[in-house]
Amino acid sequence: MRKILSPRRQKAGLPPGTPIHIGEADGAVCVTVYEYDQHQWSERTLNDPEDLRVPDRDSAVVWINVDGVHDVGIVTRVCERFGIHPLVQEDIVNTDQRPKAEEYDGYLYAVVKMVRHSADAETIDTEQISLIVMDRLVISFQQRIGDVFDPLRNRIRTGKGRVRREGADYLAYCMLDAIVDHYFILLEGIEGRIGPLEEAVLADPAPDAMVTIQALKRDLLFLRRSLWPMREMIYRLSREGAAVVSEETRLFLRDLYDHVIHLIEILETFQEIVAGTMDIYLSSVSNRMNNIMKVLTIIATIFIPLTFVAGVYGMNFAFMPELEWRWSYPAILALMALVAALMLRFFRRKGWI
Prior knowledge:
Blueprint: E1 30-36, E2 41-46, E3 61-67, H1 72-81, H2 86-93, E4 100-104, E5 107-117, E6 124-134, E7 137-142, H3 150-158, H4 168-203, H5 209-239, H6 247-312, H7 328-349
Parallel strand pairs: 3-7
Antiparallel strand pairs: 1-2, 1-3, 4-5, 5-6, 6-7
């Protein structure tokens, strides 16, 4: 079962703003810096967060990507290098945050959930992404190495699209857009699981169908838990805006908001289909049980008079006239067969069989 809450015992009682990692520690920490403008770009991996710096050129944009938030020391050093509030540092290392956006003095802090199919394509791999957006600077914190931003990195390297001509706010929008696009890919995979399941339940519901239905319900509820807060966050950024988000980027965020609304509509449709499939499964199982009980009831009903006749002639009284008759045994058997035939004919005429 997917965990809803991560353990928080070690955090209880500590002062607000104390960065304590909550979640799974996965892999090594890697700090990568991308710097670009309209004419050139560079990419490098840092071993020491103290080497981080602001852009050299007035037109350059810097993207600092930190893979691995379980090393609180590195996260703290990166944040202190750029004057990030301790409450933000606390939220970054707490991987159980809900999607949100908060504006601080000079920067915007946003949290989203990045989802992908796991290696077996049957479960959902989720990861918290924290974004700090400043003037000409974006800092992203991820739980582990590997994300959905490779197409964005390729656009930066090749100069395709608008990203090299725009500011840090547009880069943050592109990252949000890549995350939202993978929700569509994930829902396509879920749709591929729902279709065959629905057909199988209608044709011949197997016992393992219930396990598949429950897994789909959990996945859809988990996605809903991520999408609804993201909807509120993107709506706020696209309508109310923030100091570091330009009016032109807000237009793109409005389009992204429409995509999230579309995702939620698809998600709710899938939830209704899965709930209907569950009802069909339960109805099919109930109907099968009713048919079995009907057959057993008919068999028991037929044998009630036959058992009565057999019981009467099994009492072994001395003065039973049929005991001395030569044809008593075949006559009683014939009577019992006649009673059974008449009862079957009666049941058929009533439409019970």
